[in-house]
Amino acid sequence: MSSIVHSQAADIPYNMTSTTFDLPGYRIVASLGVVRGVVVRSRSLLGTIGAGVQTLFGGNISLFTELAERTRQQAFDTMLVQAETAGGDAVIGIRYDATEVMQGVTEVICYGTAVRVEELPR
Question: Is there a smaller number of Cβ atoms within 10 Å at the N or the C end of the chain?
Fold first, then answer.
């Protein structure tokens, strides 16, 4: 598989993801290892200028908030694709991390453990 995932569509639904290490109503039958989604983004010049104007008025800087949310979502979706490729049908222990690689360029990583689960009897 390529080291870069181009598709952002996975069949793992969001309700099969968790920041905890279990999924209520399911039993983990196989742990498939760590999966991750990495996105490196830079701010555009126009976005930086627009955000600079927003800082003059105080409050939420919506341009940066939207960029951060889109970046986290892309990292999350990429992680789900990796989990599905590994044979998982759920991801547990999900975490995010971000690092400024250089001024104005940030790496966001979303990672967790891909697992296979089976539904518990009701």
Answer: C
